[in-house]
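Internal tracking record. Fields below are filled automatically when a chain is submitted to the structure queue. Please do not edit lines marked as system-generated. If the sequence contains nonstandard residues, flag them in the REMARKS field before resubmitting.
Queue: standard
Priority: normal
Entity type: single polypeptide chain
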Amino acid sequence: MTSEQLLAEIREANLTYLMLAQTLIRQDKAEAVFRLGMNEDSADLLASLSSAQVLKLASRNTLLCSFRMDDSLVWSLLTNHNTPRKVGNEATNALHANILMASRVSEVL
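SYSTEM-GENERATED OUTPUT FOLLOWS
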């Protein structure tokens, strides 16, 4: 993949993320804040952007979204790979990972 192709992929990911975020925020702001892991002020700002502003913002060379799972425990639980304590099933691991991520969202708010 060339550098230009990589930048095009980043811009496309940015546009997709911003459009998804706006849709989620406009449908249910409280749920969007939780799912996107952002504060209400950021959600309000994103929801108020015009199409031209979204396109301009998406055209940046930096990825605008980020992984919320910066913790190896959460990754292990979500992938069932090297979990510290083998739990009975995938559903329990996913639930545990969701609880951990949800607790981190409250820190943002």
